[in-house]
Design brief:
This protein is about 45% helix and about 10% strand. It contains 20 helices and eleven strands. A three-stranded antiparallel sheet has the order 3-4-7. Strands 1-2 form a two-stranded parallel ribbon. By secondary structure, it is mainly alpha-helical. The longest helix has 16 residues, at about 20-35. It is found in: Cytoplasm. Belongs to the class-I aminoacyl-tRNA synthetase family. Glutamate--tRNA ligase type 1 subfamily. Keywords: Aminoacyl-tRNA synthetase, ATP-binding, Cytoplasm, Ligase, Nucleotide-binding, Protein biosynthesis.
Length: about 475
């Protein structure tokens, strides 16, 4: 029988969904779905002090928003639950007991102070990486039973066999080799009864029949410990893929302390980045398809995802590229979708009660081509809602470079003022007729009109901008500039 394909994303509830853990979730998801397998989301909450309230609900919500829907998870249990480690303590205990019975693990009664003293002694003796000195391993059975009877706090340590090697063929790194002599006996169950990550993760991956483990490269050094547990239970380990780092534009590891860089999905979601753009962008962080094409929707990515094409070098988190992609996906929206997407941003910033639907629709649509993210519509449409008093330095620069515009602007103002039929087409006609009669064209025609009428040096189609600003506002804008230029 062919092995089932089951992958998992196993966040610790220590934080919110950021670029790095989204990439891990996404690659697990894509690989699972590519092989028609299952994608599981399991919560690894054994590091109790570090758990953050609300982190898991928020991670799940944001993953779902991106379209990364688990087949099994806390609120959607399958036959392998529970999906939260703190609800599985009994299972870890059972498995630890099996190791104890087989003498592959032993009770350790050392206190934190004793362990620290032994560590320091080894450091003084010149051991660069001190390890547990196995003093509890040497306790007799009677001594152990005595301590257990007296409720001396105890942890359970895994006995690392001598002279063993641990090899795996990482999908990203290729062959990786570790030797047991470099590792000391390590704790699998802490004295509070809670398992350590390296133990719980393996028990869960075995019981949940996980076929592939895709995770960040910081877990490579944990892998030999995990392989020991598979070997102790005579279980076949999964296939591992340790993804390379994500770096910032300075080629430094992405750090949550890079305050200036938005790294959380919720931040992008809030300001109007689209889920399919983020999905597409993150799929290319450490993976690339064959060929030059970069724009793929979820279904295409599932189809073409190929685990042999995971990148061996770090990938750069390039916000400009994400924004470029987002604009692309905005442009791909139907006009209806686009209007439904942008209107709430506008409504949150301006009073739209007296605005006609047609006017709003036209206003939003003129920015469809250039809009990079939803929230940007607020800044782009500002001149249509509030009087722009301060010109940007670019606009002032352009204004100062204009020559011979007096007649053009005066004429334009007159014609606009006399216009009774306020329509885009009539405005267009005025502009083209002025061009002909005054013999100006191109930039010499459009730039002065644009600056005087809208107080901006660039923007969407000029006649549409003028139409949307309305006669009164256009005249006001022109007069403001004419007056201030005469001073
Ligand atoms: N809970 C671990 C983490 O958040 C999961 C590591 C793994 O996938 O094995 O890093």
């Amino acid at each position: 029988m062919e092995k089932k394909i089951r992958l998992r994303y196993a966040p610790s509830p220590t934080g919110f969904l950021h670029i790095g853990n989204t990439r891990t979730a996404l690659f697990n998801y894509l690989l699972a779905k590519h092989y028609q397998g299952a994608f599981i989301l399991r919560i690894e909450d054994t590091d109790v002090e570090r758990n953050v309230e609300g982190a898991i609900a928020s991670q799940l919500d944001n993953l779902r928003w991106l379209g990364i829907e688990p087949d099994e998870t806390i609120d959607k249990p399958g036959q392998y639950g529970p999906y939260t480690q703190l609800e599985r303590l009994q299972t870890y205990e059972e498995y630890a007991n099996k190791l104890l019975a087989a003498k592959k693990a032993y009770y350790c009664f050392c206190t934190a102070q004793e362990l620290e003293a032994s560590r320091e002694k080894q450091l003084v003796q010149g051991y660069a990486s001190p390890r547990y000195d196995r003093r509890c391993y040497r306790l007799s059975e009677a001594e152990v039973n005595e301590k257990l009877k007296n409720n001396v706090p105890t942890s359970i340590r895994f006995f690392v066999p001598d002279n063993e090697s641990y090899d795996f063929n990482d999908l990203v790194r290729g062959p990786v080799h570790f030797e047991s002599k470099d590792l000391g006996d390590w704790v699998i169950i802490k004295s509070n009864g809670i398992p350590t990550y390296n133990f719980a993760v393996v028990i869960d991956d075995i019981l949940m029949e996980i076929s592939h483990v895709v995770r960040g490269e910081e877990h490579i050094s944990n892998t030999p410990k995990q392989l020991m547990i598979y070997r102790a239970f005579e279980k076949e380990p999964p296939i591992f893929a340790h993804l390379t780092l994500i770096v910032n534009e300075q080629h430094k590891k992405l750090s949550k302390r890079d305050g200036h860089l938005m790294q959380f999905i919720s931040q992008y979601r809030k300001i109007g980045y689209l889920p399919n753009a983020i999905f597409n962008f993150i799929a290319l962080l450490g993976w690339s398809p064959l060929g030059e094409e970069e724009i793929f929707i979820k279904e295409e990515l599932i189809k073409i995802f190929d685990e042999t094409r995971l990148s061996k070098s770090p990938s750069m988190f390039d916000v400009k590229k994400l924004t470029w992609m987002n604009n692309l996906y905005i442009k791909k929206m139907s006009d209806e979708e686009y209007l439904a997407f942008t209107k709430p941003f506008l409504a949150s910033a301006y009073d739209l009660t007296n605005k006609a639907d047609d006017w709003l629709t036209m206003l939003l649509l003129i920015f469809k081509k250039e809009l990079q993210y939803g929230q940007e519509i607020v800044a782009l449409t500002k001149p249509f809602f509030v009087q722009v008093t301060e010109l940007s330095s670019e606009t002032i620069g352009m204004l100062n470079n204009l020559n011979n515009y007096q007649e053009l602007i005066t004429e334009f103002r007159n014609q606009i003022n006399q216009l009774t039929n306020w329509k885009e087409i009539s405005i267009k006609e005025i502009i083209s007729m002025l061009g002909k009669t005054l013999n100006v064209k191109g930039k010499d025609l459009f730039m002065p009109i644009r600056i005087f009428a809208s107080h901006q040096e660039h923007g969407p189609e000029l006649a549409k901008v003028i139409y949307l600003l309305g006669k009164e506002q256009v005249i006001k804008n022109i007069d403001n500039l004419l007056n201030s230029n005469e001073k």
